[in-house]
Amino acid sequence: EANSSPSVTGGVGLYARVSSHDQKSDLERQVSRLAQWAAAGGHRVVRIESEIASGMKGGRTKAKRLLADPDVTTVVVERKDRLGRMNVELIEAALSATGRRMVVLDDGEVEDDLVRDMIEILTSFCARLYGRRSAKNRAKKALEAAAAGG
What we know:
This protein has helices at residues 24-41, 61-68, 80-83, 88-97, 111-130, 132-147; strands spanning 11-18, 44-52, 72-77, 101-104. It is an alpha/beta fold and 150 residues long.
């Protein structure tokens, strides 16, 4: 869908994100895929940012840096959820309002990351209920129980 969009003009900013350190190889794969796409299209890459950060939390320093760069007129991500798990539409609207745009190379969803985010939400919820120490175990158990159907 995004690939058939109007031509990319101005400076391109590539953004890659994974939510945990054990996905570092996926981070490198994302960056190289984005770079290959840009090279194949003859686009002028002005910024590349990649980071290990939760999709649920707002503290994505490098994403903010990329979005704040006035030279970046097109933001390219592998999947929409790389930019964030929620409110990506707001980011798109803000880009659009300033004559910029976002290109998404692949709109497929990856289950692993969604599961990771669910564990994160449940962990934080359980932490409030039971205290930090047992929260992670309880979150995992809750998710396994849900997966087992009850």
